[in-house]
Amino acid sequence: MANLGIPRNTIEVLQRHNFTFQKKYGQNFLIDPNVLERVISAAQVTEKDCVLEIGPGIGTMTQLLAERAGSVVAVEIDRNLIPILEETLSPYSNVTIINEDILKLDIRQITEEHGGGGPVKVVANLPYYITTPIVMGLLEGSAPLESITVMVQKEVAERMQAGPGTKEYGALSLAVQYYAQPQVVANVPPNCFIPRPGVGSAVIRLTRYKTPPVEVADEGKLFAMIRASFNQRRKTLANSLGNAPGLKASREEVAKALEEMGLPAMVRGEALTLEQFAELAGRL
Predict the structure, then answer these.
(1) How far apart are CA 155 and CA 145, in angstroms?
(2) Residue 230: partners with Cβ closer than 8 Å, 6 or more residues away
């Protein structure tokens, strides 16, 4: 089977199947063998692993995953790619192709059927327009995931691993860091894809925590508070939380809680760590 990481082989397969790229699916296929290698080694795939791949495209990375993993479940939304995948993955008996929208699938059921209910590793070159819903859906779901290693827009990767006091830091940073430890593994220029995206990309590995690094009585309240804190970044916390619907805390109560925590009354959300948000949620 031809190495699909080589651009001319990818182009040959696409032409033979008269494949046209669908803008609505945000399709950008990876055509750089070195980057593919970086993704797979960052995911630390071994023969014991069940790997869930989202958006396999024509199977470029799937082939490499199949050679190293115990089993691979490849979920592809575009039915025009299914005949191509059936061809490019025909040598591999350990690959299951599912033609579905990942956001509508029961990931837990997939892990039980194919991974024996044990922890699964997710590897993906994600469509950029839908990265956040996919990543958060995986993290918030009940499926046993060990890690998520994904290619995303560079700016989104930076937001996921950003810390307090930076302009990238926001609700996404805190949500990801509540569930997992993020690490940007590689930056990837547009010329590593076909067609070329208009932005730079990055590979980020999210290692799932067994238990979140902070303890809160009510996760829903914590995240509602975090969202309200960043909805209007320029506002002080007392103002943004004091009139947030659903939080039932007055401006005065927020100010008092911040004072008890030794924080200035004019502090903004972007200055607080995850631990401080958890403490504030507890006090309110």
Answers:
(1) 24
(2) 170, 171, 269, 270
The alpha-carbon radius of gyration of the chain (Å, integer) is 21
Nearest to 128 by CA among 158, 104, 153, 159: 153
> Which domains, ranges and CATH numbers included, belong to the chain?
7-208 (3.40.50.150), 219-283 (1.10.8.100)
Percentage of the chain surpassing pLDDT 70?
99
Q: What length is written for the chain?
A: 284
Query: Does the structure show a pLDDT above 90 at 122?
Result: yes
The Cα 44–Cα 34 span in angstroms is 15
Mean of pLDDT values over 35-50: 95
The strand order across the sheet containing 201-208 reads 95-98, 71-75, 50-54, 120-125, 145-153, 201-208, 180-188
| Cα angle 19, 23, 25; round to 5 | 85
**Residues 149-181 pLDDT 10s:** 999 999 999 999 999 999 999 999 999 999 999
pLDDT at residue 65 above 70? yes
Q: Phi/psi at 162 (nearest 5 deg)? A: -65, 150
**Do the Cβ atoms of 182 and 206 come closer than 8 Å?**
yes
Q: Is the pTM of this model over 0.85?
A: yes
Rounded to 5°, angle at Cα 197 from 23 and 182 = 105
pLDDT higher than threshold 80 for residue 3: no
